[in-house]
Design the sequence.
C-alpha cells in the first residue's frame, strides 16, 4: 500500500518505526522547496518540536520551480519516511520515522492565488528555503499580479507585499526568514534582493520600511549529509516497512543548524529545547570557518591524494591506516589549533567529522569531490596552511603535501571534451575544472615532459595569483616543500610518499 493517512491507521506499533504527531495544527511555517534536504532537516526538526508539544504548527510547502514534487507530496497526504543512519561513538545507529509536520504543498505556477492566500494567514510566522546556491540572486523581471515570477526573491517580494496589504503594515505580522542556501550571509542577501524588487516594482517606501524593520532575515549555516531516495534499497525497505513511500529519504545522524539570531526568536522556535543541535549566536562567521576548514578542508586535502593512491571513496580513505592517519594529522595537528572557537568544541566537531566520513551508509566518491579542486583548495585549505605558517614559522607538513598532491592529480597534457586527461595506476581519469586552470596545468606538464624539472613546474603553477589569491611561489619554504613532496610522489607514489611523512 502507498503511504498516506489511511495507511498509517493500519500500521501497528513497532519499535523500529516512530510516527510524528498527527493532531491538527495551524500553518506557522512557509517553506520554499520540497527537496530531500529540507524534508530531512527543517521538517524533521519541526516534527520533533510538535512531537514534544513545543511548537504546535505545520509547514506549508511551496514548489520553487515549475517542475517539482508537491503533487506527489499531496498524494501521500504530505507524509514521508525519513531514515537517519550513521556512526555514533563507533556504533552503527539507525532511526526510522514517518514525518508528519507538513500540511500541504502548493504549486504557485498553477495556483498563484493560493500561494498569495497563504500570506494572509495571521498564524504564519516563519519562512525557510533551500532553492540552491543560485536561488538567492536578483533577477530583473517585471511585476505580474496574476502570474508567478521566476526567481525565488521575486516570489518572496510578492508574498510579503500581499501580507503587508492584508494586515495594513501591522508590525506584528512581520516574518522571520531562515534561508538554508549554502551562501555566505544568506539572510542578508535575500533581504537585499527583496528590497531591490520592491524598488523596481515601485511598491512604495512604506512597504520597504515594513520589510526592513518588521521582518527578520537571519543568516544561517546548515550541515547534514542527505543522500536522498535509496534507489538500490527501495524494494527491500518497502517490504520491511509494509508500505510504499515514493518520498522516502535518507540522511546521516549528524546535524547542526547555526542561526545568527537573538534569544527572543530562539524562544519562539525552541529547537534547542527539543534537544536538537541548533546554535543561536550573534556571530555566525566562526562556525562557518570551522565547517569550511574542518569538514570541507578534510574533503579537499584527502580526495586527490587518496584517489592517486588507488582509493575511490571517502570511507575507504578514512579507514585506510596510511591515508586515514594523514587526514587526521592535517585536521587535528594543523587545522584545529588556529580556529577561532574553544579548543574543546572544535575537537569534538572534528571527531564528529571523522565519524561522518566513515559512515558506512554514505558512498561519497573521491572523483566527485575533486571537481574544481583549485578554487576549493584556495577557500578550504590554503587559509589554514598560510595561518599555520605565520603562527609557527614553518609550513604544515600534511597540508603542504596536499598541495603537492593537487599538482600531481592535475598531471595531464591533453584536454578532451573540456576535461584534462590524467592517469593513475588503474587507468585514466578526467580532471574537471575551469578552462584556464586546465590549460595552465596541461602547459606545465607538457613542459615538464621536456625538462623534468619539478621545482620549475611548481614555481610556474604556484606563481598564479588568479588561482591562489597570491603568488605562492614567492613563499620560498612553501615552494621547496611542495617541490620535495611532488618529487617523492612522482618517484614512489602517493602512499609511500605519505609513509615518509609519518616519520617527520
Sequence:
Amino acid at each position: 500500500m502507498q503511504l498516506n493517512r489511511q495507511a498509517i491507521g493500519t500500521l501497528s506499533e513497532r519499535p523500529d518505526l516512530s510516527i510524528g504527531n498527527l493532531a491538527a495544527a495551524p500553518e506557522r511555517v512557509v517553506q520554499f522547496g520540497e527537496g530531500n534536504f529540507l524534508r530531512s532537516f527543517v521538517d524533521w526538526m519541526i516534527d520533533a518540536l510538535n512531537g514534544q508539544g513545543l511548537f504546535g504548527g505545520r509547514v506549508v510547502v511551496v514548489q520553487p520551480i515549475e517542475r517539482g514534487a508537491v503533487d506527489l507530496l499531496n498524494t501521500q497526504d504530505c507524509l514521508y519516511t525519513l531514515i537517519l543512519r550513521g556512526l555514533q561513538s563507533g556504533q552503527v545507529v539507525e532511526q526510522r520515522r514517518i514525518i508528519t509536520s507538513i500540511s500541504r504543498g502548493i504549486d504557485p505556477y498553477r495556483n498563484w492565488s493560493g500561494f498569495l492566500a497563504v500570506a494572509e494567514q495571521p498564524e504564519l510566522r516563519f519562512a525557510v528555503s533551500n532553492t540552491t546556491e543560485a536561488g538567492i540572486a536578483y533577477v530583473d523581471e517585471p511585476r505580474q499580479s496574476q502570474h508567478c515570477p521566476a526567481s525565488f526573491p521575486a516570489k518572496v517580494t510578492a508574498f510579503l507585499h500581499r501580507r503587508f496589504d492584508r494586515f495594513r503594515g501591522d508590525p506584528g505580522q512581520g516574518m522571520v526568514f531562515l534561508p538554508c542556501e549554502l551562501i555566505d550571509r544568506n539572510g542578508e542577501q535575500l533581504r537585499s534582493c527583496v528590497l531591490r524588487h520592491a524598488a523596481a516594482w515601485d511598491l512604495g517606501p512604506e512597504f520597504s520600511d515594513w520589510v526592513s524593520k518588521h521582518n527578520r532575515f537571519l543568516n544561517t549555516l546548515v550541515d547534514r549529509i542527505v543522500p536522498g531516495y535509496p534507489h538500490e534499497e527501495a524494494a527491500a525497505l518497502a517490504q520491511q516497512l509494509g508500505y510504499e513511500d515514493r518520498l522516502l529519504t535518507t540522511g546521516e545522524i549528524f546535524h547542526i543548524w547555526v542561526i545568527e539570531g537573538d534569544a527572543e526568536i530562539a524562544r519562539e522556535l525552541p529547537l534547542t529545547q527539543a534537544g536538537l543541535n541548533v546554535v543561536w549566536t550573534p556571530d555566525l562567521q566562526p562556525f562557518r570557518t570551522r565547517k569550511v576548514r574542518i569538514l570541507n578542508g578534510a574533503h579537499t586535502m584527502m580526495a586527490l591524494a587518496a584517489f592517486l593512491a588507488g582509493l575511490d571513496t571517502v570511507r575507504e580513505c578514512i579507514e585506510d591506516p596510511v591515508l586515514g592517519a594523514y587526514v587526521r594529522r592535517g585536521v587535528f595537528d594543523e587545522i584545529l589549533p588556529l580556529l577561532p572557537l574553544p579548543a574543546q568544541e572544535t575537537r569534538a566537531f572534528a571527531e564528529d567529522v571523522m565519524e561522518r566520513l566513515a559512515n558506512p551508509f554514505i558512498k561519497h566518491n573521491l572523483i566527485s569531490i575533486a571537481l574544481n579542486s583549485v578554487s576549493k583548495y584556495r577557500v578550504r585549505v590554503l587559509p589554514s596552511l598560510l595561518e599555520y605558517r605565520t603562527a609557527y614559522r614553518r609550513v604544515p607538513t600534511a597540508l603542504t603535501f596536499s598541495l603537492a598532491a593537487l599538482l600531481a592529480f592535475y598531471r595531464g597534457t591533453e584536454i578532451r571534451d573540456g576535461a584534462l586527461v590524467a592517469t593513475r595506476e588503474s587507468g585514466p581519469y578526467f580532471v574537471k575544472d575551469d578552462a584556464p586552470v586546465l590549460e595552465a596545468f596541461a602547459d606545465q606538464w607538457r613542459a615538464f615532459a621536456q625538462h623534468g624539472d619539478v621545482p620549475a613546474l611548481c614555481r610556474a603553477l604556484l606563481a598564479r595569483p588568479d588561482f591562489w589569491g597570491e603568488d605562492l611561489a614567492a613563499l620560498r619554504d612553501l615552494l621547496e616543500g611542495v617541490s620535495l613532496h611532488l618529487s617523492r610522489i612522482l618517484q614512489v607514489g602517493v602512499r609511500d610518499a605519505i609513509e615518509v611523512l609519518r616519520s617527520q
User: Anything to note?
Assistant: The chain has two domains: 5-281, 285-501.
